[in-house]
Amino acid sequence: MITFWRIIMSGFKNVFRNAWLSIAATAIMVITLVIVSFFAFSALFFQNQLTAIRDKIDLSLFLKDDAGVDDVKRLGEGIRGISNVKAVVYVSKAEALERLRTSSKDGESLAKTATEIGNPLPASLEVKTNSLDNLSGLNDEIKKLPQANLIASSSLENSDVRKKVVENIIQISRAVSRVGSVISIAFLVVSLLIIFNTIRMAIFTRREEIDIMKLVGATKWFIRGPFLIEGAVYGIIGATIAITIAFPLVNVARPLFVSYFAAGDVLTFIADRAGLIILSMYSLGITIGVSSSYLAISRHLKL
Amino acid sequence: MYPNKTVALSGVSLHIQPKEFVTVVGSSGAGKSTLIRLLIKEEEPTSGKIIVGSIDYDTITKKNIPHLRRRIGVVFQDFKLLPNLTVYENVAFALEVSGVRTSEIKRAVPKILQLVGLAEKASNYPGEISGGEKQRVAIARALVRNPKILIADEPTGNLDPKNSWDIIELLLKINKFGTTVLLTTHNKDIVNALKRRVITIQGGRIVKDEKVGRYIL
Hints:
The structure holds 2 protein chains of 2 kinds.
Chain A: H1 2-17, H2 19-55, E1 59-63, H3 69-80, E2 85-91, H4 93-103, H5 107-116, E3 124-129, H6 135-143, E4 151-154, H7 156-205, H8 207-216, H9 220-258, H10 263-272, H11 274-298
Antiparallel strand pairs in A: 1-3, 1-4, 2-3
Chain B: E1 21-25, H1 32-39, E2 51-52, E3 55-56, H2 65-71, E4 72-75, H3 87-97, H4 102-115, H5 131-143, E5 149-153, H6 161-176, E6 180-185, H7 188-194, E7 197-202, E8 205-210
Parallel strand pairs in B: 1-6, 1-7, 4-5, 5-6
Antiparallel strand pairs in B: 2-3, 7-8
Helix pairs in contact in B: 3-4, 3-5, 4-5, 5-6
């Protein structure tokens, strides 16, 4: 225990002893962490948006105004029985109006107008599917159901548009994760090399000391420990700086997202995962620092 | 033993009694240093057996080398002090390495510095003290763990005659307290004045082993 404490103390001493090398190592750590986490979370975010959009209605069946509640229920059950259907949700006329109100900037005035003319919005059944393929096949099957006469029209005409949107997002997210992983890996390697070299230089200037330590009877871990701590300190400081940089950076980048997604989405997405981001930054930083230290010191430790 | 198959030592067989004071002499390259490197397991013998106290070197795994070194005090010609630690910290380091408690270190280090006569220099750095004092720090570091055997590899090699004698007298004092001392040197005057057992090595072989020896090469 006392030995453990001594190793930690001497690791911290090392960091301050080679201040410039430490700064270089920490700086590259910061850059790496910001870039890696930026791409990782962009990829995650796109994925998240994708499922969100997919979860939005795949097929809407607009009902005739005179459709009875029981009949609609039976129709819903019938649709649920078809394969590929995940869920069926009933949206009443009032709910449709409410949705219109909150859907966009002009929603309020649109809804007002709609109310004035007696809510022309139809009630509907929203059908969510497991896959977006073959929606027209699904539509045909629904039409064969006994209660199909309740359906005034379906949204199938528009579903192609939705499908295209989804496909676009898939493409974007694929590109982001591909480019992101290449850049991330490149920076990971660079930072690994730089920290590896930093520690190696520290070791080189102190190899005599290391030899003396060996002769005095220091164990491998007693010699290696401080260097590993040094690496971990680079990781911790690097992650701390990266976090303080990254969060304001999200705010700066916000307009970029806003043109594609609802503005709140990005922020809440990140806010929801703040803990995860912080945790993964620290663990990634410490992992990079410690593993490159370990590689650098190992060759010097033959007793 | 070495890549070019130079044999530094061969057919060396010697036995050192507990509490003995033994001097090993020989010209440079005779194999004195190799003998010591074998004793601290910096090198492995190609054949033969080394036993120190009850420790058979064949049974020591790589992992245990540090523990072996903690039980043998070694003093080198070039002192091998850590330059950015004070005298006190250099001696304390030997104990820290062994996982000794801080309170115990605070008790033992001043005592041993007193013994080697360096109590006032405790907070000086190695760069601020003389060669003779550095060597006494090294001896203090070697002794602070109470080793049964103290190996001094040409401890006077870098010192003037006056300082050399101080060191030798210190070694004799330590020997009187019951520590086995193995000294290597090529200082003729010292060897002749010691009147102790002298082992002469030449060309990697023991050519002489006398109870009260003289330096003859």
